[in-house]
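Progress against Task 2.4 (sequence-to-structure conversion) is shown through the following example record, which the project officer requested during the mid-term review.
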Amino acid sequence: MSDMLPAPGNLHRWSGYEPSDPKIIALYAKGKALQWNADVDLDWDQPVDPSSPLHAAAFPLLDLPIFQRLGAADLDRLTAKLTRLTLSQIIHGEQGALMVASRLVSLAPDYEAKLYAATQTVDEARHVEIFGRYLKRCGGIVPLAPGFGAFLDKVIDADSWLNMMIGMQIIVEGAALSSFHTYRRRAREPLLSSILDRVIRDEARHVGFGSTYLRNTLGDMSDDEREGLADYAYDAVMLFARTRRESFRQSEVFLNEFGFTLDEVLRSAAARLESGGAALADPARDGITEFILPTLTRLGVLTDRVKEKFASARLPPIMASSLLDELDMLTVASS
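C-alpha cells generated for the chain above:
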C-alpha cells in the first residue's frame, strides 16, 4: 500500500505517487479508455415504445397460469409497468453506487484504488443520467422501495471502506450485472438494448475491481478481522435478499390495476408447484446464490462459520452454474 499521511476523519491521503498494484492500474487504464458519452454514443432520436421495453419472459411471474386470462395488449401494458418499476429501482441503486464510488476516492487507502474509484464515479453518474432519461420516456420514476433504501444506507454508511466495497462492488454491482445480463436477452426496445450493452461492460469492470482489490487485501487481515468482514457480508446479503422480496410486493399496485391481487398470484404459483409444475423462478435469488455468494466464496470473504449460516438460511453458494460462467466471462473480458 502507498505510504499514508494523516488526514481528518476516515479520509486517507498518501505520500507516494508510484502505483504498487499493476492489476488495479490496468483496470484504471481500461476505465479511462472505455469512457463513453451518452449524448454521442446513444441514439436518443430513435422512437421509444413505452409499452414494450422488455419481453414478458423477463418477469417469470407472468408465466403463471393466472395471467393467461390477459389479452396480448394488457400483457404488454403490465410488462411495461413492471419494467418501469424494475428500472426505477435500478436508477436508485445507481445513485447509491455513485455515492459509494465517490466516497471510496477519499476512503480507499491506496493511490491506484483512488484513481480507479474516480473513473467508477464517472461511470455511475452516467448510469444515473441515462436511466433517468430513459425512464422519462416510459412514464417516470417509481419511488425507492423503503427496504432497498435501508440496504443502500447500510452500504453508504458502512464503518469501513472494506465493508463498503463488499456491499457495493460485490453485492450491488454483482446483482446489477446479473439483472442486466438477463434483461439484455429479453429487451424488445432498441434504445434499451444499446443502454444495457454499454452499462454491462461498465458493471463487469466494477465487479472486477472489487474482486481484485479484495483478494489482494484479505491476505493481510487477521482471523478476527476476516470474521468481522464475513459477518458484515452475511448481514448485507440477507438484508439485500429481504429487499428483493419487498420489491416483489411493490408490484402489487400494478397487479391490482389489472384485477389481480398478490395473494392470488402466490396461490397460482403454489397450485402450479403442487400439480407437478415448475416453482416460480426468482432471478434475484439466482443472482445471489449463483453469482454473489460464489464470488464472495472464491475471494475468501466467507469463513466456514458464515458459510454455515448461509446454508441454514437456505442460501448456499452454487459454485457451478451457467450464470456464474457467463458473468465470469463478462467480468474477465472487461477487466
